[in-house]
């Protein structure tokens, strides 16, 4: 029995190593969202640019749009930002969720790097992001005109993701309208 107990740490180490090794090959962009097919969670938040303006999820219905989770602390968000500007210029509405950030930093970011968003809500405690099932920034959600989440995309939105996943989905949603 004592010999078995001597090998127990080795067995536990090998089992843990197996799961960690397997985790290296998981793609976070392919992680399912429990909210796909469900409405955007209810929220009532202030906007980054105007702390007197309160918006809710009801303000977003009636059009297909992107909901983008970002933060000034997020390196990937800085990489994705110019592409969001291009998408916004195409006419597709984008709404931002500033996730666990400093208000002044978020305001300065939008001033310095240009603002692709119709508006950005200030999610200082991360409650809305948590309700959306966000793992980290950046994450982008495709939402239909009824307020139903159709896709969650985790990671940097780039031309490949846009052309292979997001744009075709948006086109099919609009074709069904």
Topology:
Layout: H1 2-23, E1 44-46, E2 54-56, E3 65-70, H2 75-89, E4 94-99, H3 103-113, E5 120-123, H4 127-132, E6 139-143, E7 149-154, H5 159-175
Parallel strand pairs: 3-4, 4-5
Antiparallel strand pairs: 1-2, 3-6, 6-7
Question: Could you tell me how far the N terminus lies from the C terminus, measured between alpha carbons in angstroms?
Answer: 69 Å
**Name of the CATH superfamily:** Glutaredoxin
Radius of gyration: 20 Å
Give the beta-strand count. Answer: 7
- CATH architecture name: 3-Layer(aba) Sandwich
Indicate the overall shape: globular
Sheet with the most strands, sense and barrel status:
5 strands, mixed
Here the CATH topology equals Glutaredoxin
Average residue pLDDT: 89
Supply the CATH class: Alpha Beta
Task: Summarize the helix and strand pattern as letters.
Answer: HEEEHEHEHEEH
Helical percent range?
A: 40-55%
The low-confidence parts are none
**Total DSSP helices:** 5
What does this structure look like?
It is built from 5 helices and 7 strands. By secondary structure, it is α/β, with parallel strands linked by helices. It has a single domain, classed as Glutaredoxin (3-Layer(aba) Sandwich). The strands form 2 sheets. Strands 5-4-3-6-7 form a 5-stranded mixed sheet. Strands 1-2 form a two-stranded antiparallel ribbon. It is globular, with a radius of gyration of 20 Å. The model has no long low-confidence stretch (mean pLDDT 89).
């Amino acid at each position: 029995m004592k010999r078995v107990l001597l090998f127990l740490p080795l067995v536990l180490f090998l089992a843990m190593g197996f799961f960690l090794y397997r985790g290296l090959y998981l793609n976070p962009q392919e992680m399912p969202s429990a909210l796909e097919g469900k409405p955007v969670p209810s929220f009532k938040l202030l906007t980054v640019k105007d702390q007197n303006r309160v918006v809710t999820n009801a303000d977003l219905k009636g059009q297909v749009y992107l909901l983008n989770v970002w933060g000034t602390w997020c390196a990937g968000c800085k990489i994705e930002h110019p592409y969001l500007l291009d998408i916004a210029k195409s006419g597709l509405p984008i709404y931002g969720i500033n996730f666990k950030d400093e208000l002044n930093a978020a305001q300065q970011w939008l001033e310095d790097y240009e603002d692709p968003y119709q508006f950005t809500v200030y999610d200082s405690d991360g409650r809305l992001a948590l309700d959306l099932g966000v793992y980290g920034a950046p994450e982008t959600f495709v939402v239909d005109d009824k307020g139903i989440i159709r896709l969650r995309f985790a990671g940097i939105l780039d031309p490949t993701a846009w052309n292979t996943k997001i744009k075709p989905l948006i086109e099919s949603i609009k074709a069904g309208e």
